C-alpha cells in the first residue's frame, strides 16, 4: 500500500473558515544542530476539537508540542491563535495567551492537597500586604470546579500522593482548564493506566470537548486516539503526512498506513535518523 493509498496528506473533509480555527501552525521548522526535528509543519486545530497527534519515536511530536507551548521557538514559520499571529518566548508566555500543557509527569506536588495543587502558582490570598493564603476560598472553589467538570474526588484536602493515577491526571487537567485555557495539550494522558482509570480521563476529555475546549492529544496508542479524538494527524520525519477526521478513517487504515510508512523508511534507510532523533 502506498502512502497515497493509505490517505497521506488527506485534508479535513470540510474547508475551514478563519472562525472555525483556534490554532493555526503554518510552515514551522526546527533543527537541533544537524538533526531536523521539524521540516515544514502546518496544522490547524478547530474550536472545540480534539486532535490526535501520532508518529514514531523521533518523528517530531514532542518538538511540535514544545513549540506550541512556548518551550522551544521555531526556526521558521508562524503560529496564529484565533486568527492573530503570536510570539511565544516561554511556557509562561504561552499560558498568558491561553495555551497550556499537561505532561506525563503531571507537574503536581504529591505532598500537597488537591485544592493547593489546583491553585499551584496562582494562589488566592487575603490580608493585604501579608498575603495570607485564602485556604477556605480555595477549597470551596476547587470543590465547585471539580464537581462542574464531573471529577468526583473524595476530599479536596486529600494529599495528591494518596490518589490513583487516573485521579492525579484528572487533577492536572483540572488545574490547566480552570484558568480558561484556549488550547490544551495532553501528553500521553492514558499512559500506564488500567481500564477504570482510563475511563475517568476519557470521560473528562469528552466532557471538556462538549463544552468547547480545544485539545491536542499526543499518544502512541491508536485505540486511545480513536476513542478520544475527532481528527488524527500523523507526523513523520518532520512533516504531517496524514490528516483525517476519525469518521473518515479506521483503526485498520491507520495501522496499515503506519506499517507502510515504516517499510518505506526501511527501504530508504531513514529509520536510523528517525530513531536517533528522540532527544528533541
Features:
single chain; 280 residues; alpha/beta; Rossmann fold; six-stranded mixed sheet; four-stranded antiparallel sheet; 9 helices; 25% strand; globular; disordered N terminus; disordered C terminus
Topology of this structure?
Layout: E1 21-32, E2 35-46, E3 50-54, H1 61-68, E4 76-81, E5 84-86, H2 91-97, E6 99-102, H3 114-118, E7 125-126, E8 132-133, H4 135-148, H5 165-177, E9 183-187, H6 195-210, E10 214-218, H7 222-228, E11 231-236, E12 239-245, H8 251-268, H9 271-275
Parallel strand pairs: 3-10, 3-11, 6-9, 9-10
Antiparallel strand pairs: 1-2, 1-4, 4-5, 7-8, 11-12
Helix pairs in contact: 5-6
Describe the structure.
The chain has 280 residues and is of the alpha/beta class. It has one domain (20-275): Rossmann fold. It contains 9 helices and 12 strands. The strands form 3 sheets. It has a 6-stranded mixed beta sheet, with helices on both faces. Helix 5 (165-177) packs parallel to helix 6 (195-210). The radius of gyration is 20 Å and the shape is globular.
Shape: globular
- Top-tier CATH class: Alpha Beta
Q: In what range is the share of β-strand residues? A: 15-25%
**CATH homologous group name:** P-loop containing nucleotide triphosphate hydrolases
Helix-strand pattern, N to C? EEEHEEHEHEEHHEHEHEEHH
CATH overall fold name: Rossmann fold
Number of strands: 12
Average pLDDT works out at 86
Share of residues in helices:
25-40%
Question: Would you identify the regions where 5 or more consecutive residues have pLDDT less than 50?
Answer: 1-14, 272-280
**What is the architecture at the second tier of CATH?**
3-Layer(aba) Sandwich
Strand numbers in spatial order across the main sheet? 6-9-10-3-11-12
How many structural domains can be distinguished in the coordinates? 1
Total of DSSP H or I helical runs spanning 4+ residues: 9
The rounded Rg comes to: 20 Å
Query: Can you summarize the main beta sheet?
Result: 6 strands, mixed
**From the helix content, strand content and strand pairing, which structural class follows?**
alpha/beta
Amino acid at each position: 500500500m502506498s502512502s497515497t493509498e493509505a490517505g497521506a496528506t488527506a485534508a479535513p473533509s470540510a474547508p475551514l473558515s478563519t472562525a472555525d480555527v483556534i490554532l493555526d501552525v503554518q510552515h514551522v521548522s526546527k533543527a537541533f544542530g544537524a538533526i531536523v526535528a521539524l521540516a515544514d509543519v502546518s496544522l490547524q486545530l478547530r474550536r472545540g476539537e480534539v486532535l490526535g497527534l501520532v508518529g514514531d519515536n523521533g518523528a517530531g511530536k514532542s518538538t511540535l508540542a514544545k513549540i506550541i507551548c512556548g518551550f522551544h521557538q521555531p526556526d521558521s514559520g508562524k503560529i496564529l491563535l484565533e486568527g492573530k499571529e503570536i510570539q511565544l518566548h516561554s511556557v509562561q508566555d504561552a499560558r498568558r495567551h491561553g495555551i497550556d500543557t499537561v505532561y506525563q509527569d503531571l507537574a503536581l506536588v504529591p505532598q500537597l492537597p488537591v485544592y493547593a495543587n489546583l491553585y499551584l502558582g496562582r494562589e488566592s490570598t487575603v490580608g493585604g500586604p501579608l498575603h495570607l493564603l485564602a485556604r477556605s476560598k480555595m477549597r470551596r472553589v476547587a470543590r465547585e470546579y471539580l464537581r462542574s467538570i464531573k471529577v468526583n474526588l473524595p476530599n479536596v484536602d486529600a494529599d495528591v500522593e494518596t490518589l490513583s493515577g487516573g485521579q492525579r491526571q484528572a487533577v492536572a487537567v483540572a488545574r490547566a482548564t480552570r484558568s480558561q485555557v484556549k488550547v490544551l495539550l495532553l501528553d500521553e494522558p492514558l499512559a500506564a493506566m488500567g481500564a477504570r482509570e482510563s475511563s475517568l480521563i476519557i470521560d473528562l476529555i469528552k466532557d471538556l470537548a462538549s463544552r468547547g475546549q480545544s485539545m491536542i492529544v499526543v499518544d502512541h496508542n491508536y485505540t486511545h486516539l480513536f476513542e478520544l479524538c475527532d481528527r488524527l494527524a500523523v507526523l513523520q520525519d518532520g512533516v504531517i503526512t496524514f490528516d483525517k477526521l476519525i469518521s473518515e478513517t479506521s483503526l485498520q487504515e491507520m495501522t496499515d498506513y503506519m506499517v507502510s510508512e515504516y517499510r518505506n523508511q526501511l527501504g530508504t534507510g531513514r529509520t536510523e535518523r528517525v530513531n536517533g532523533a528522540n532527544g528533541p
